[in-house]
Amino acid sequence: MSIGMILLLVIALLILFGVLQRVLDRMALTDRQALVCVAAIFIGGWLPDLNLGVVTLNLGGAVVPLGVCLWLFLSAGTAKERIRCLIASLLTVAAVYAISVYFPADPTAMPFDPMLLYGAAGGLIAWLLGRSRRSAFVAGILGVILCDILVGVVNWSRGISQTVHLGSAGALDAAVLSGVLAVLLCELIGEIVERIQTGRASAPNEDGAIRGGHRA
């Protein structure tokens, strides 16, 4: 079983035990909705790819994640959040493409898996643009899938004939890991910043009073 499939099982267990409740709340997802998405990606990953000529689509690695991203995007609370989500996704695509170009194509030639960079890029960019877990997930997923499309278009423009495989094989692992890492990174950074801001707000000033309140 691949790392992506194992990660999906771990996520499902964490959801069942309520560990991810806070993250899901911030993404406007219920436990049931999240479990359905995880199950659809897991089951779809085992199904045969859809052959569309020069493009093949894997249900679990491309179709379902894209559907989840679209649903999260449309359910965003404000137009500003949607715009930030789109910008974060495009910037993540550019970042992932740059990583794929300037880093070795063979992961064994690197001291770490490049998929970690994909997720880190999505999470950091999304957080900088709005600290949104929803945007982080969408940017992390689209960063991987759209980058594969971009690589295919670039190769076709150079006269290289190839079939673009979206979501199959390691691409499912990359998409899942990237989306999860993006959300976790966004959550971690947000938590650290929130604690720092809370600490500053409660720090005593020169008169001994606490900003935002008074000593007991």
Structure report:
The structure is a single chain. The chain has 216 residues and is mostly helical. 69% of the residues lie in helices and 4% in strands. It has 8 helices and 3 strands; from the N terminus they run H-H-H-E-E-H-H-H-H-E-H. It has helices at residues 3-16, 21-26, 31-46, 59-74, 79-102, 115-130, 133-157, 170-202; strands spanning 50-51, 55-57, 164-166. The protein has a 3-stranded mixed beta sheet. Helix 6 packs across helix 8.
Notable traits:
globular, about 220 residues, single chain, mainly alpha, about 5% strand
Pick out the low-confidence regions: 209-216
Quaternary form: single chain
Q: Can you count the helices?
A: 8
Major sheet summary line: 3 strands, mixed
Shape category: globular
Radius of gyration: 20 Å
Q: What is the mean pLDDT? A: 80
Q: What percent of residues are in strands?
A: under 5%
Give the % helix.
55-70%
The strand order across the widest sheet is 1-2-3
The secondary structure category is mainly alpha
N-to-C CA distance: 57 Å
Beta-strand segment tally: 3
* Strand and helix order: HHHEEHHHHEH
